[in-house]
UniProtKB/TrEMBL annotation, chain A:
One example GO MF annotation: sodium:proton antiporter activity
InterPro entries cross-referenced by the UniProt entry: PhaG_MnhG_YufB
Record keywords, A-Z: Membrane, Transmembrane, Transmembrane helix
Record's keyword annotation contains Lyase: no
Phylogenetic classification of the source organism: Bacteria, Pseudomonadati, Pseudomonadota, Alphaproteobacteria, Rhodobacterales
Name used for this protein in its record: Monovalent cation/H(+) antiporter subunit G
NCBIfam families the UniProt entry points to: CPA3_mnhG_phaG (TIGR01300)
Record has Transmembrane as a keyword: yes
From TrEMBL, chain B:
GO cellular component, one term: plasma membrane
Keywords assigned: Cell membrane, Membrane, Transmembrane, Transmembrane helix
Membrane-topology annotation of the record: Multi-pass membrane protein
Record-stated family: Belongs to the CPA3 antiporters (TC 2.A.63) subunit E family.
Protein name, per record: Na+/H+ antiporter subunit E
Length: 120, 159
């Protein structure tokens, strides 16, 4: 009996996590469509990448239990945890270097930007 | 020598964990590929400079920092989700400097990646003493929050 309850708790928790992760991936995609420009869309993408990815992997790990699959899932999570922000930075930096300036709602168009001419 | 043996064992352990098939032939392939990779690394060490990645981090503090970061990621995700779902989308973009106090490359990378991992802020450019950060929903508290994160990352460093 106790085992059955435990199985159900794990099952429901994993489904909750998987559905929550899917919701965040959808919200990220929705933000990508709604947001007005490149710089704000980058932020929408990072919602799918962080919350969506973490919740989906946690849900899948609960589904597979203490197996090798869970270890691989944790490994994938660590990998995305490191490569995700690095690639986001690379895309943002490439946009900046190629001359795309973000709209600045605080300082207006006169906002401060790095002096790219000074770089080697 | 010790580092080389440790690397060979780590590579083989990784193979075992990723493969999941423990027949003699497959495990033999694992041994062969671990040895081949180790040989290649030794060979490359002779040509490339022997500059190694030095990690000066306190493991326990790193783990507690990761826990704190996960909470921050959850909070920031919720904030960005609210901006996405709000009908009028209250975007307030800002591009600003964030000074960093980490002394090692690894520490600076952890800080910059933590900024990008929390939705709503992206580290875009590195200069000598500060990062250029782009924020989606900027508020004056963001500066304090980033200063706090900076101090926490610096505390993980042991240098």
């Amino acid at each position: 009996m106790a085992e059955l309850v435990y199985d159900w708790v794990i099952l429901l928790a994993s489904w909750g996590l998987i559905l929550g992760g899917s919701a965040f991936v959808m919200i990220g995609a929705f933000g990508m469509l709604r947001f007005p420009d490149f710089w704000s869309r980058l932020h929408a993408a990072s919602v799918s990448e962080s919350a969506g990815m973490l919740l989906l992997i946690a849900g899948m790990a609960l589904q597979s239990g203490w197996t090798l699959v869970t270890f691989k899932l944790v490994f994938i999570a660590l990998l995305v945890f490191i490569t995700g922000p690095t690639s986001t930075h690379a895309v943002a930096n490439a946009a900046l270097v190629s001359g795309l300036r973000p709209r600045d709602d605080v300082d207006g168009v006169e906002g401060a930007f790095p002096d790219l001419e000074a770089e080697p | 020598m010790f580092r080389t043996i440790l690397m060979a064992i780590t590579l083989f352990g990784l193979w075992l964990a990723m493969s999941g098939v423990y027949k003699p032939l497959i495990v033999g392939f694992g041994v062969a590929s671990a040895l081949f990779t180790t040989w290649m690394v030794i060979r490359m060490d002779k040509i490339a400079d022997d500059e190694r990645l030095v990690v000066r981090l306190n493991p326990l503090r790193f783990i507690s920092y990761t826990g704190w970061l996960l909470v921050e990621i959850a909070r920031a995700n919720w904030a960005v989700t609210k901006i996405i779902m709000a009908p009028e989308m209250p975007i307030k973009q800002h591009f600003f400097r964030v000074p960093f106090s980490q002394k090692t490359d690894v520490g600076q990378t952890i800080f910059a990646n933590s900024i990008t991992l929390t939705p709503g802020t992206i580290s875009v450019e590195v200069e000598d003493e500060f990062f250029w950060v782009h924020a989606l929903g900027y508020s004056d508290q963001d500066v304090e929050a980033l200063e706090d994160m900076d101090a926490r990352v610096s505390r993980v460093e042991t240098i």
